Amino acid sequence: MTTTETTTTTGTAEWPTGTMTAAALRRVGDVGLVEIPVPEPLPGTALVEPVLVGLCGTDLELLHGSAAYVRDGRVRWPHVFGHEWVGRVVALAPGTSAHVAEGDRVVGHTMISCGVCRACRSGGRNNCSRLTEVGLYGQQGAAARYIRMPVHALSAVPDAVPDTEAALVEPTVTVIAGLEAVRCGPGDRVLVLGTGTIGLLATQLATRLSGAVDVVAVDPAGAELALGLGARRALAPDDTPPGAYDVVVEASGADAAFLQSLRAAAVGGRIAAIGVPSTSVGPLDACDLVLRGISVHGVRHGLDHYDRALALYASGALSARGMTNPPLPLDRVADAFADLARASRPAPKVVLAPQG
Ligand SMILES: [Zn+2]
Ligand SMILES: [Zn+2]
To answer: What does pTM read for this prediction?
Structure first.
C-alpha cells in the first residue's frame, strides 16, 4: 500500500479508451465473453483492473434467473457480473481527489450508497433506499478488463494481505456484520450452519470471538476444512443438539436450514440469518420463538466493515487457507460457472483472473 488514510492524490496516468473484453451473462442461462466500451471517466471515479474475481451463489442465481434482481427487472443484459474482487488502480478521473493512487491494490465495495437518502443521512448506508450494487444491478461488475468505481467505494489493500485473501473481503464484511448483530462474545456456544465461504469465514471469526464453534456440514470436505480452521466439532444436520446454542449463524441458504437454526438456538438465543433460501420457509412456530425469546437478525451486508476485514487478514486473524480454487482466465468463465454449480469441489470459492 503506498497511501495512507490522510493522503490525497489526483490522477496523472492516462485513462484508457476503446473497447474491452468482459465476461457477461448474456441472458438467463447463457454466459460468455462480450466486447464492451471501456467506461469513460466520471468525476470522483477511478479505473481499476481487477486481478481476482470471486463467484458466489448469487452469481449462479443471476445465471439461472432466480435472483431477485433478475425477477424484478433490475438486471440488464448483457450483465457483467463480479462483486467480490481485488484489483489495481489504473487511473483516476481528471480532477479527482482520492485516498488511493494509481498502482495501489484495492478492493471494491459492492453497495454504492447515494449519500443523501434518509438512511444514508442517519448513518445507515447499508440500508440506503437508492442503492446500486456492483455486479448485481445498476453497476458493471469486475469480471472485465477494467471496472470504473467511485473512489469512496474503494479500500486500499495492505501489503501483508495477498490477493487470494483480499478477494474474500466482500463476503467477510457480511460475516462481521452478522456476528456484530448477534453480539457474539466470550463463552458463547456457537453453531454455524454451512461450510461454504460464508460458513468457513464465520467459523474462523466466531472461534476467535467465542472459543467454541460447532459446524453443521453436509459434505466431508467442508467438514474437514472447518475443523482445520478452528471448529470444535462438525455435525451432520440430524445430529445437531436442539436448544444448545447461544449464537447460531445460518450460512448455508439451504431451505431446511433456517428452521433448523431456530431449533438449535438455546433460550434467549440469537440467530444471524446470512444464507438466502430459494423458497419461503415454513411452517414457522412463532409461539416457540416468542416463548424461548429467540431473536433473528437478517443480515443484509456490512458496508462499513471493509477496512476492518482487511485488518483481520493483515493480522492473520482470518485466513483464506484451503478456501480458494486455482483462478481461471476470463475465457473459461463457462467452466467457472460449471464448477460453481457442482455441490462438491476442492475448495468453496471459484475465482476468475480477468488479466490472466
Ligand atoms: Zn457474493
Ligand atoms: Zn442513500
So the answer is: 0.94
